[in-house]
Each structure stands twice: as structure tokens, then as C-alpha cells.
Design brief:
By secondary structure, the protein is mainly beta. It has one helix at residues 95-98; strands spanning 3-4, 12-15, 18-29, 35-43, 49-55, 60-63, 66-75, 79-84, 90-94, 110-116, 119-123, 128-136, 149-154, 159-163, 171-175, 181-184. The strands form three sheets. The protein has a six-stranded antiparallel β-sheet with strand order 1-6-2-3-4-5, with no helix packed on it.
């Protein structure tokens, strides 16, 4: 396994036989003693958030997972089902691995999964997705005192608040990190 002194957000770390994804990294200086790096990591096996402090310059072990293209089929109460683009076998990814990103996946869409030792670590998330509006209520007259919004339903079933001018059939850009409307596509 490679070792680095510069951990960056999104890097996969190997710690005590467990794989973590680095969610945040902060540098804290302490005068003459040198700096400390505070790592906020998420365990991919349990979803547990762990905070670890290391000295600046300390080496951490990281992995470079293999990527594989799969096609999203459907989702149920246990997890999400994907088809391997090469072998055509069905792969089930548990709910805790894919998380809330499942609400932005369209049927038949290709996504990348990250694998390590034959085990799926995570789904490579896009920063934004384009989804079509399938259900929208009319604007309520007089609802314009401050930022007037209405709730709409997108093609994946995800509900989001948008400005009043959005109508059925529009394709919208949705920020997958916050789940908020970010503009028309």
C-alpha cells in the first residue's frame, strides 16, 4: 500500500484493516510544536464517523480503489441493484453504502463503483445531476412575501423546493451534496 504525508478529501485510507473515506481535513498549528492534522473519516463498513488527529508530516496508508462501470436497475428496502456492464451480472449494494445518493439515480443510468479486494466501497457521486420535473403544483397567489417557492417531484421521486416559474417537463440541475435546486439544465 502507498503511504503519504498529504491526505486529501475524498482519499480512501486503510486504518487497522478497515477502509475509510476522508471527508474533511483541517490543519491546526501549535506554535513551536508544529502542526496537527485533524482527519474526519467515514468507515465504509459501518458508516461510523471517526475523528483522528495526527502530527503534520506523519505518514498515512491509503488505497487506490479499482473503478468499474455499472448500470442502475432499481432500488428496494434492502439496497440498490446494478448490472455489471461487462459480465451482465446483477450486483446489490446495501442502503448504508450508497446512502442518500440513490434518490438521484435514474433507471438505466451508468455510474462508477469503487472496488477494493473485490468488495464494493462506494458509488462515485456526481456533484450535480439533471432530472426532469414530473409533478408540480400551481403557484399560490400572494405567496411572494419572500423567496417564493413550491415543492415539485422529480422523475426519481425526489421532492425539492424550487422557484414558482418551474413547470412540468422542465429539466433541472440538482446539487447532490445538498439536495437543493441549482438551476435549469
Amino acid at each position: 500500500m502507498p503511504i503519504t504525508a498529504q491526505p486529501v478529501k475524498g482519499m480512501y485510507l486503510l486504518e487497522e484493516g478497515r477502509v475509510f473515506i476522508l471527508q474533511d481535513r483541517k490543519l491546526k498549528t501549535q506554535g513551536r510544536q508544529g502542526g496537527l492534522i485533524i482527519l474526519k473519516m467515514k468507515a465504509l463498513d459501518s458508516g461510523q464517523i471517526v475523528t483522528k488527529t495526527i502530527k503534520a508530516g506523519a505518514k498515512v496508508e491509503y488505497i487506490e480503489p479499482e473503478t468499474k462501470e455499472v448500470q442502475f436497475l432499481y432500488s428496494d428496502s434492502e439496497g440498490s441493484f446494478f448490472m455489471d456492464s461487462e459480465t451482465f451480472e446483477t450486483i446489490m449494494i446495501p442502503k448504508d453504502v450508497i446512502g442518500s445518493y440513490v434518490q438521484f439515480l435514474k433507471e438505466g443510468e451508468s455510474v462508477l463503483v469503487m472496488l477494493f479486494d473485490g468488495k464494493i466501497l462506494s458509488v462515485k457521486e456526481q456533484p450535480s445531476v439533471s432530472l426532469k420535473v414530473i409533478e408540480s403544483s400551481d403557484a399560490v397567489r400572494g405567496n411572494t412575501s419572500n423567496s417564493a417557492t413550491k415543492e415539485i417531484v422529480l422523475e426519481t421521486g425526489y421532492k425539492v423546493h424550487v422557484p414558482l416559474f418551474i413547470k412540468v417537463g422542465d429539466v433541472l440541475k440538482i446539487n447532490t451534496e445538498t439536495g437543493a435546486y441549482s438551476g435549469k439544465a
